[in-house]
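Quick question: what would this complex look like in 3D?
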Amino acid sequence: MDAIDSFDRKLLDLLRHDARQTGRQLAEAVGLSPAACLRRVQRLREIGAIEREVAIISPQVAGQTVKLLVMLVIPPGKPDRIDRLRRKFAALAQVTTIYHVTGKADLVLTVECASMEAYANFTEVHFYSEDIASFETIVVLRSYDAHPEPAPKA
Amino acid sequence: MDAIDSFDRKLLDLLRHDARQTGRQLAEAVGLSPAACLRRVQRLREIGAIEREVAIISPQVAGQTVKLLVMLVIPPGKPDRIDRLRRKFAALAQVTTIYHVTGKADLVLTVECASMEAYANFTEVHFYSEDIASFETIVVLRSYDAHPEPAPKA
DNA sequence: AATGAAATTAAGTAGCT
DNA sequence: AGCTACTTAATTTCATT
């Protein structure tokens, strides 16, 4: 019912880079009719292979010019402590991604703020609490999205 | 010429979550006519406020089930060394993001592989070279996208 | 079962007030 | 900006393999 064939893979790979392509463009690229392509795309959305389609907003316009990686150490406690924190951080506008990780840190956040001062405020409000044992900030000078080609499966 | 007003901000915020909304839906949400909304969206694309629109593919389907953060230390050398490495990594299918950062590490990569063994291979091929002084791998147990609401600007 | 071609419906675009 | 007409794309139907 939810098998993915090579046409589907091709479509996913195209839409991953540009979700605004028309049925005709997709048809051209994969070698099927426009109708068949769009039928497949719809199915891929239904079965969750395509989770969602989003617009990438320029960080400048979004007013978030400073990006940081924050490694958080959470003090030992109830097992759901990390999940509670995760939910708390997910609700903050400045937090763009949350990684639950192994190693010295427990959570790694990517944070975007309007300025370093805004980030300083952010840390004071959110990291100086009983829930956070320690944190380390890594300033991102530049970030790049990688755009993988058809994927030479490792 | 490229001023962003509050209607534009609202549109960006809507499309950031779901880029497949129709003019009518946008109109309903922001309080303008469908045509006006789409005109604005088109302009936002032209001025680069909307960088692009992409489909988010389920990691399972993409066949990349293991996610890692890699902190790379680059030996001192020509100033363009980091940029050369950045470009090299950007071309790899397993690398999804590249951060050029301050601190102990110089580059932080997010890497996605089909398995841990695949990642082991990946490190052998790409990190055991003269260009990499050392690296540290952080295994991501779970990752979450944060979905900021209208943004309580910090 | 899924495709392609044609017909229908809906969306996006352009012109005018 | 809004409204309306025009154009293009998406969706559905249907005959075909």
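Answer marked as accepted. The radius of gyration of chain A is 20 Å.
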